[in-house]
Give the backbone structure.
Amino acid sequence: MITPRLLMIIPKLLPVGCGVVFCVALPAFAQPRPMPVVTNDESGFVQIFDGKTLAGWEGDPQYWRVENGALVGEVTATNLLKQNSFIIWRGGETRDFELKVEYRVSAKGNSGINYRSVMATNGPSAMRGYQADIDGKNQYTGQNYEEKGRTFLAMRGQVTRVENGKPPEVIASLGSTNDLVSVIKDEDWNEYHLIARGNVLIHILNGRVLSVAIDEDPVNRTRTGLLGVQVHVGPPMKIEYRNFRLKRLADEAL
């Protein structure tokens, strides 16, 4: 169920202003109403990718390069992957933060933005942790997927509560699948805006909240970790990222 505490927490985590509509299907005791959110406020954000070099980033140069101001990950028919490969930002760890970044993915592409993550032991460029999912077919774009961990934490359109040893509990809806998919631009530039504060993880895409995970699993959740982006096992693909901006937030106990 949606508790009064939940109704208080989620708006608190979002920037106050106008520009984004956060719609939740509420129970009878609370009428649905849009919560306006600003996504064009750039105060406190710092660029973490210079658009010219891979300085500050670490990944396999067979798959990652800089081209036309973008961080490009590409898998070709001659260098297919045996496991997912990441390029990792080495400028620090992500704890409570906001991240804004633009991406463009090929039609058969599959990628994601990992945060509060750790390096996995089964590969030099493998990560484990929270991921803002991206795919060219838009089957999964917007969801919260834990790479090499608990897998699906919040599907697109869901607000979930995650507890130890239990499947994620869907406690609210953010809209219909068709409505949410309509905000995603195929093979064009999209902007992800991620907010992680305490145990609440919010994925916003092109100004629309697509998923919220409230991680109440003290055994498996993480409060800090690395940031990286992914090229995925499968057919040849291309993913481009540009304009990475990171804003660190003051820690808050939730």
Summary: The chain has one domain: 44-248. The CA atoms of residues 164 and 172 lie 19 Å apart.
